[in-house]
């Protein structure tokens, strides 16, 4: 598999130096520490300022002043980083997360390093260039943090420590906030200050990606400690603890000439550590070309610096050749421990010599011996600069300057990679696959060219369903590769389309890219759309094909014509205005409510309706397709004879009230050339008709199709009527006289309760059918048992003002009927709203209700009686399948889908027979289609993981490539032929006949069979 050879998501993160979860958590903890330190300083300053002791009172105000100064310094540092040095980076982050940026900017006024935590959270390995800049910006902030700590942490530590000394010396109670402040400041000095000093000393403006790569190439790393180093550092740590205890227990040591021995010991220990820290930072600065790799493990480096102040041997863990490289600087590092050892040996010798001393003599002797051994070890360490203790050869060392140069190269590569990913996002967004971007990038597919390597099987392995994978593969597959790949550009140039902006794109990308050519002038965009339509004409409208503005017409699975009503498509072309993909991505508006549906505006009727999209090449009858791609039918009305205007010739665009009483909203064709084909009147003409009662005036509205007579007629709004109607029994041109011409106001859809296209949307009807929750049974007029859902939510989808149990009355004939609820129509296999007319034997469907809603009034409500619900055979089968979820034993291999990929099935006879009533291998026929045979294969999970029954289909000798799911099969009359096929033999026959199945015509045949069964 190609996927297995690509780096994993974690590997990509590591390669780019992206922060891990542990690093982000660590930086968050440091952020909390910084904020705590600031808050504790404020708390301590307040406690001292409110003290009734004058010295503490002054120290409180001094601490507050230091905080104000540090805030000003921190704001200057923030401005320098965010507005000057890294302005572009922070501007981009601010656009993406303005609220977070504002909050952290405010918090960073307490300590600039708070911003490091924010940058860590915003780091994204899919944005390599930004990731590089973030890592460098974090290092710059840490360098500036040294300045901040100089103005805040060190002075605050001194102030609060002095306040503790005052309290102890005067016997005052030490305030708790002061102790908390000292702890915070001490932690900041030991952890942050030392770490920032190390960062400043190295001063490498390179990202972690560069450092990681070069450190790995040169095997530069912090080595694990050996036993000798651990022992030497442990001896010095033990000596420090013992010496402090000795000084504490001894009290003022009476040295000759009244020299304060205890004070000398404290000063010697303190100054030795300060000198050690100073020399270590200077050493790091001098050897920055050999120690830059420690920036990758800054916290560990801080620990080594801390232990290095006890014994320089700890520093050799950064580089095992450090003493050799350090030279005389190694000797300087030994000065601090040596001064500490000599001083303590002198004090301990005096204590041993004294006959009376506060510390037990045995303890003094032990400490004297140990300090002597420690001093000897320090002196012996001088020889390490003359000998190489490591066995590793000296590698060619990259200097910091070379590291920074390498970082620049990686930055350029990162910028190129980020541009590729950006183009990939735009490419996927064009086809509605933007939801897959992160997944593809994490698997190493960073460019459009990489996508052509993917197969449907690999996409399924990555987590896509079979339908999504096949659709994706189809959309991304390159076409017309080779020498003829640019032939389509010649065609476009011959049409008059500028092809400069199309260079570098394949014909497939130009055909299916929704945003391709948007930069072209309007006329050239139209020519490009015309070329697209011509090349895609006749294809089933699937998610692989659909685009905004595309011309479509009814397809092979069209099922929306209702007898006695105007065909909603007018038997003509329409335009795609919106759709919702199977991944729930919306294009255009208003979008359908169900995934995999498209909204079309029909040119003839002006209706906007939703229809089913196909699902690509691997159609499993889970969704029929209602539409196909078409080219606009250019109709010249000049060639149409008067009186021969047909429905397909119309273009209804003008909304008006239709019906002389209780009108509904409808659209009319008001074009002059169209109206002339019916009668010699124009839109807005006021005409008079002489009758026995006198002259009747009316206004000509337009022409509209009359489904009763199946003719296009002219409609007029007569005085005193509620809307437009027809004249009957007269010759319009002979009996009507034009008396004036007026402007006619167009009606709005929301002004009228009813509309000619006001029935339930097709996708909403499908949603209702899929989500029915029957609560009672009811008899239909034909005596069929209806399983009725009486919920208000389902009834509301039918765009009516009624609810279950409402008794409504017709204002025309005063007929009454009761709204029952929603149930599936057994003859059409679709959801319908059912009413029981008073005196009728059962419930029925009112087909034209959406056009006559204003006639009906609710007069009362009587809840429909509940009844027992009998489980249908389909529900029984579904229950058995649901019980098998997780209990299938799929062991039998069989070809599957239109491409015949291998899949496993559960073919246990007892299990399959319990579900279907037949055993695997049973051959069934479809009533009315003798040539169509369905062979039962077995049970396996569908795309959603639910157990389903799979069939192999043959029709007139055409053998399909694999097994498929046939939904709603319970609505088809299947007959057992008595034949049983051996599935192993059938599998061999299928493989021997690969490529002989056309696939799509077979789909259409079975869809037609299912549809004819339902209509029958």
Automatic annotation (TrEMBL):
Annotated transmembrane regions:
58-81, 229-248, 263-284, 291-310, 330-353, 365-382
SUPFAM superfamilies, from UniProt?
SAM/Pointed domain
| Keyword Coiled coil attributed | yes
Residue ranges that the Swiss-Prot or TrEMBL entry lists as coiled coil: 398-434
Instruction: Give UniProt keywords alphabetically.
Output: Coiled coil, Membrane, Transmembrane, Transmembrane helix
Q: Which domain of life is it from?
A: Eukaryota
Q: What is this protein called?
A: Uncharacterized protein
* Organism whose genome encodes this protein: Symbiodinium natans
